[in-house]
Design goal:
The protein is mainly alpha-helical. The chain has 22 helices and 8 strands. The chain folds into 2 domains: 2-120 and 315-345 and 379-485, Haem peroxidase domain superfamily, animal type (Myeloperoxidase, subunit C, Orthogonal Bundle), CATH 1.10.640; 154-314 and 490-528, Myeloperoxidase, subunit C (Orthogonal Bundle).
Length: 540
Amino acid sequence: MFVLRMFLLRQVRKSDQRSKPLPGYLIRRLPGIFEFLGRKPRLRRAASRLFINSFAYATSPRPRPFSMASDYTTWPGLTDRRFTGRHLPPVNQRHLPAEEDVVNLYRRPKDKETKSTDTSALFTFFAQWFTDSFLRSSRHEPGRNSSNHEIDLCQIYGLSAAKTEKLRSGQGGRLKSQLIDGEEYPMFLEPKIVGDELVVNEDFKGLHRESSLRPFVDAYPEDQRRLMFAVGLEYGNSTIGHTILNTVFLREHNRVADLLKVNYPDWHDERLFQTTRNVMIVLLLKLVVEDYIKHIAPFDFPLEVVPFIAEAERWNRSNWMSIEFDLLYRWHSLVPDHIGEGADRLTLYDPDKPDKNLVNNNKLVISRGIENLVAQMSRERAGRIGLLNTPEFLIGVAEAPTVRRMRAACLDSFNAYRKAFGLKPLTSFEQLTTNTEVRRRLEQHYRDIDDLEWYVGIFAEDYPDYRMMGPLMTTMVAYDAFTQALTNPLLARNVFNKNTFAEVGMDIITDTHSLQQMIARNSKSPGDVYASFRCDPGGK
């Protein structure tokens, strides 16, 4: 069995080096083999360890000699995490096309959305909500960030102890919440513009910097501002996905806190809260690895969070977000033109139908309910990751700024990053993509494949239907995801135990493997919940 595991993992890894995908006979057999491994706990754990390490060692481990602090190695660049990290040193690439031409490489033609094979719109919203918590670039100083560099659920706890305190109820370890038609939600922020000043509910004064929160308040329809919730991050109300997931995790926090209070009646509020928070962060880590990254991996590889896996590995280093990780996660092409059909059809942004928008619309979440919307998202296929597939609405507000940021960071070429992550450099645009229109445009804008910019190349790269992104992006996502998530201090050998989570908390952690479970146990109708990152239009 060990030989079989090694063979399969080598084949998956080697497929990134091939110009052709895995042989058909192997593809047909892999799902059944992985299903078998998933049913055998010891085999699943061993296979997960091998799979994780195959990507965690894809490139040199942290610390990185370079950061956005300077063009060369410095002590602040090695220690001051307010500067964003970087994998490769800056270069002065010449012969680059105009920014406008590069941005146009991403634009989705009208009514010509390319759908993903099986990724749901729910995955799209989870990806944004998840990464917005740690990929926090400064709007004013491109080389700096405001990230905690950890997966710490700051989406519901805030970025500092002072902000966390404002979100706590102070009783039973719970977060502040309210009931709306019998359903639990965060408290209202109640933002108002008084003269030129932004004013919020007194309980949440100082939760967010006015300069950070104001753009999101200004973007909200005036008649809906009263429905904006008090949550951990300033953009926590910007999409229905943020609102849904913040609410789900708040409900789960308060559910766990209540269970701990019943089982440990002598515990005071502080211990109940801190223990619940520990449980919740590990629950998020489990969902990220066992539900979210599992979907990104080829063939839904049966991944699990392997306890203490980082303890003996060279990649066990302090987390530090990189500029490349920040930029490669701009999966704007995942966003579908619409979700659903008929009366329930939702669009990204339509000024004439604000009640049907996916952005700035807490009213929709409250009126339709989380279960209804999550099921609708789970049944809609997301867009396919790639060029010529970013919705028009996002071109100016998201894609253009990303291209400018990529250029400002002076990132090395696509082939340079392939080499840095253990993949063979490509020798022609024919090797990069079989899409004739994409190839024509790239050949028009770049003299040679070695001139191709990294941010363009990772979206241009071909990939087969059993993947959801190209080989280089897959490798870089997996490297950063595994080495950032699994080095969390709560997963350390001397921390991951019943003293940290309590016996009740350990049981919850052990029994949780999917977002579906979390939503269902916080629902009035658990049997009606359908939440999946894999799109199944015929799902219940």
